[in-house]
């Protein structure tokens, strides 16, 4: 049986007040759950990470350790609260995790970005190998070209989408005309109006996707204006504000299974699509001006997985589930095709949903694949 320990990783300075908990700020710690093999001494560690999800109990940790690989479920400073998340700070956090494990004696480190972690690990390795980002999209620190970001030895994107801003824009409800009145809607762009479908026509989908991008850009224009207003009216004392975004689970693929057909069931990770589109638990309803630019703006966010994978030199494995109703095959292919070298693999997992729900056998098969891939590339 594998052993488990809690790692306390130093948290780097972020430059702004973006964690509400004073206890968390003063502790100066990032927390990770380390699972070691039952026998032998593993020289390879796999860090499983997401920008904000709690991965201390990730389903792959124990199975990977049982297969002889040390597995670390790492949390960023934005654990369970992405309302003020700055992607560039997540990169710094991940860098501290890599350094911690290097100093602990691990010779090979692999980053596994699960779900929203795919864009993060791609961005990390890109900036570790060839740093280009000198500030956040709002012009704030950190300067990643001056950061200590040790490169890793391999990248795994598991059940991942290309990046938060990309998938978020694909989910934005374009029928919302007034950001304060989500139920005053443009019927011609309303996926929940039965006159439009499902099934949805190519003409409707073309207009719909274009309107989603325009809504994202409309919010971005408002965000930049608000930043200027807040600064000018407070003499620079206020440099950020919170706000609400309504309608963030309105991808027609959730209800029309003829769009990008797969084994998936209808609906979202949060249940039936119409209610999920409005309830607070779903993606990106609560954010701040600066966080919007960093993680949700389609034109500004740096967390574009395919773009950054084109700049990495290490082997890349992209795994996806054929029954996933969140990270679609097209997302996996975008990541795979973004890799600019031959050491890449696209691996479908037949029948797997986003969390391998109720399928420990599929988890085992996935972890078998990870270990075989590590062996194939001499990473274990």
Automatic annotation (TrEMBL):
The keyword Hydrolase is assigned to this record: yes
Alphabetical list of SUPFAM superfamilies matching this protein: alpha/beta-Hydrolases
Keywords: Hydrolase, Plasmid
GO terms assigned for molecular function: hydrolase activity
Protein name per Swiss-Prot or TrEMBL: Alpha/beta hydrolase
Species of the source: Rhodococcus oxybenzonivorans
């Amino acid at each position: 049986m594998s052993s488990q320990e809690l790692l306390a990783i130093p948290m780097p300075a972020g430059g702004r007040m973006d964690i509400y908990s004073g206890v968390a700020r003063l502790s100066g710690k990032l927390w990770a759950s380390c699972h070691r093999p039952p026998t032998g001494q593993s020289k390879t560690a796999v860090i499983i990470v997401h920008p904000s999800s709690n991965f201390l109990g990730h389903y792959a940790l124990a199975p990977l350790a049982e297969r002889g690989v040390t597995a670390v479920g790492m949390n960023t400073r934005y654990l369970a609260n992405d309302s003020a998340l700055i992607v560039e700070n997540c990169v710094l956090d991940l860098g501290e995790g890599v350094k911690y494990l290097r100093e602990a004696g691990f010779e090979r480190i692999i980053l596994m970005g699960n779900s929203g972690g795919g864009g993060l690990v791609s961005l990390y390795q890109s900036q570790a190998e060839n740093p280009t980002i000198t500030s956040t999209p709002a012009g704030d620190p950190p300067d990643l070209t001056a950061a200590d970001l040790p490169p890793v030895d391999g990248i795994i994107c598991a059940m991942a989408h290309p990046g938060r801003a990309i998938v978020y824009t694909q989910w934005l409800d374009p029928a919302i005309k007034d950001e304060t009145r989500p139920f005053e809607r443009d019927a011609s762009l309303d996926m929940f109006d039965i006159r439009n479908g499902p099934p949805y026509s190519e003409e409707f989908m073309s207009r719909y996707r274009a309107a989603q991008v325009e809504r994202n850009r409309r919010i971005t224009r408002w965000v930049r204006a608000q930043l200027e207003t807040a600064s000018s009216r407070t003499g620079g004392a206020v440099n950020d504000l919170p706000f609400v975004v309504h309608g963030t689970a309105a991808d027609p693929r959730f209800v029309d299974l003829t769009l990008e057909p797969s084994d998936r069931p209808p609906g979202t990770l949060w249940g039936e699509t119409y209610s999920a589109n409005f309830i607070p638990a779903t993606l990106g309803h609560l954010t701040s001006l600066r966080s919007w630019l960093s993680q949700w703006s389609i034109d500004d966010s740096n967390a574009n997985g395919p773009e950054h994978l084109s700049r990495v030199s290490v082997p890349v494995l992209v795994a996806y589930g054929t029954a996933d109703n969140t990270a679609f095959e097209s997302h996996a292919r975008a990541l795979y095709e973004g890799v600019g070298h031959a050491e890449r693999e696209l691996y479908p997992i037949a029948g797997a949903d986003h969390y391998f729900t109720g399928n420990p056998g599929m988890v085992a098969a996935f972890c078998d694949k990870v270990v075989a891939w590590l062996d194939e590339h001499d990473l274990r």
